[in-house]
Write a structure and sequence with these properties.
Layout lengths: L2 H11 L30 H9 L2 E5 L5 H4 L10 E6 L13 E4 L2 H15 L7 H13 L14 H12 L4 E4 L3 H9 L8 E2 L10 H11 L5 E6 H4 L5 H7 L5 E6 L4 H10 L29 H7 L3 E5 L5 H10 L4 E6 L24
Parallel strand pairs: 1-2, 2-3, 4-5, 4-6, 6-7, 7-9, 8-9
Helix pairs in contact: 1-4, 6-7, 6-13
């Protein structure tokens, strides 16, 4: 619950804020100086700003490798102060100049109070803010993509954001869809994006959605999932029916373990190792090959007494999303998408923000 204090502190000192994936929604990403999220698949501007900074105040982050890239090149010019409630996380992954053991709300309250008592003038960071604005303008987020004939995962997630007007709580599984979700559905409220980060637990999306819906029955809850991750806990469809929990699932079906496929493409010259989920690796299902889609998730949904639909045409996407959101009970929308998209930007393992990949 420290988001209001974080915003006040940031405004008081004119400090740009970039968050980890877990911190998404804690600040308004649409403010000119804010950078949304940074790390392996975060914004180009966020990664470049952290890399170029001379001071980093880290609040509640443990500096995982998905945030830092190669540790020796993380914010190489910066003095780093780390405030964390767990002393074991301090100085663990990144050597810091000062570690403070504190709950974040208390620390921010004290810093704000001390600054007011000391009557510290608002620093002039206009040149720094201008630099950040120039990077954001040159590399907007999400990136403008060349339109494709068929639906992509990014199209589907953007359609959900548009049709819902951003007024849903989103859970995800683990994979490409997990990264595309905050790239194409810009979260500006805390605890609106619920995902397994750090552990990376495939199958998290549906049971998490069930829990959120029970806790907040007045909210619409959508699990954006991938066909690989969804099957890890598909039996929880029965829980939704038995307990009368009306969650929605937007199933991004590309017939691949997509994130592994992407790493195979970038790091292993496209060599496939059991990442194709279609029955015949020489006959991969997709928007142009519906007969090869496997399994049939709408039939599975019927077996669990869920309502469902499949969409593969762009012209029908928004109407299909609206039908899902308007449905009274549990509902699965299977979106058949192209399989060859990559999540970009991408900082490969062992690389730094200086080596970020922004084009396929």
């Amino acid at each position: 619950g420290a988001e209001k204090l974080l915003d006040e502190f940031s405004e008081m000192f004119n400090i740009p804020v970039a968050t980890s994936l877990m911190g998404i929604g804690s600040v308004d990403p649409r403010k000119p100086k804010n950078l949304y999220w940074f790390g392996m698949h975060g914004t180009y501007a966020g990664n470049k700003a952290v890399y170029a900074s001379d001071f980093v105040l880290a609040l509640g982050t443990r500096f995982s490798d998905r945030v830092t890239g190669v540790v020796s090149k993380f914010a190489p010019k910066a003095k780093i102060v780390q405030i964390d409630i767990d002393v074991a996380e301090q100085d663990k992954n990144v050597a810091v100049d000062l570690g403070v053991n504190s709950e974040i709300s208390y620390a921010l309250e004290r810093l704000i109070s001390l600054a007011k008592k000391s009557k510290i003038a608002k620093p002039d960071f206009s040149a720094w803010i201008k630099y950040i604005g120039e990077i954001k303008a040159k590399f907007p987020y999400p990136f403008a993509r060349t339109a494709r004939k068929n639906i992509t995962a990014q199209d589907a997630i953007a359609a959900l954001a548009k049709v819902s007007r951003g007024e849903v709580i989103v859970t995800t599984g683990v994979g490409q869809h997990q990264m595309w979700t905050p790239q194409n559905f810009i979260f500006d409220k805390p605890r609106q994006f619920i995902s397994s980060l750090g552990s990376g637990t495939m199958g998290f999306g549906l049971p998490a959605a069930l829990g959120v819906k029970v806790a907040l029955p007045h909210k619409t809850v959508v699990d954006i999932d991938g066909d690989g991750s969804f099957q890890m806990n598909i039996q929880e469809m029965a829980t939704a029916v038995a307990e009368k929990i009306p969650v929605k699932v937007m199933l991004i079906n590309n017939q691949f373990l997509g994130m592994v496929m992407q790493w195979e493409d970038i790091l292993y010259n496209g060599t496939r190792a059991n990442t194709i989920l279609s029955v015949d690796p020489n006959d991969i299902g997709g928007p142009e090959n519906l007969k090869a889609i496997y399994p049939d998730y709408c039939k599975i949904a019927e077996g669990y007494s869920w309502k469902s639909a499949r969409v593969h045409k762009k012209s029908e996407l928004e109407a299909a999303v609206k039908k899902m959101l308007d449905a009274k009970g549990p509902y699965l929308l299977e979106v058949i998408v192209e399989h060859d998209e990559h999540v970009l930007p991408f900082i490969p393992p062992g690389k730094s923000a200086e080596e970020i990949i922004i084009t396929k």
